[in-house]
Amino acid sequence: MVGDGSFQMTAQEVSTIMRFGLNPIMFLINNDGYTIEASGGCTRAVQIHDGPYNRVQPWNYTGLVEALHNGHGKLWTTKVRTEEDLVAAIAAATSPAHADDLCFIEVFVDRDDCSKELLEWGSRVASANSRKPGPAH
Questions:
Q1: Which domains does the chain have, with CATH numbers?
Q2: What is the DSSP secondary structure assignment for residue 98, as one 8-state letter?
Q3: Which end of the chain is more exposed for a tag (fewer CB within 10 A), N or C?
Q4: Do the beta carbons of residue 82 and residue 32 sit within 8 Å?
Q5: What tens digit of pLDDT does each residue of 19-74 get?
Q6: Distance between CA 24 and CA 29 in Å, rounded?
Q7: CA nearest 114: which of 31, 51, 53?
Q8: Is the pTM of this model over 0.85?
Q9: In 10 A of CB 74, how many CB atoms?
Q10: Which residues are registered as beta bridge partners of 34?
């Protein structure tokens, strides 16, 4: 499971997964950027810190994985926008038909969709990050 922003820094690892014939089920959570670092009340108020790096260039993630695949090995990709689609995608990825495939599931989530716990955690991290360093022990 990886977020869209993190995947943009590590996408080339999919090529390594394919080269070694591995067959994980990968979920890419596409929420259009770093909600964890810049979320609050789920209205984009800053929780940890905000900056232009929190806004990522939109990619066609399944298209990128298909391009890396380039017809070599076994690959199955899908895009998911609803809970029903997610249930169907998981059923397909875990079926015998895809047992040997790298299954790449792109899950679209609203940018501001976050839990109360995430907001609390973000607030605590922001507080810790804003403290001056203490003396070394």
A1: 2-130 (3.40.50.970)
A2: G
A3: C
A4: no
A5: 999 999 999 999 876 555 544 444 444 455 566 666 778 899 999 999 999 888 89
A6: 16
A7: 31
A8: no
A9: 14
A10: none
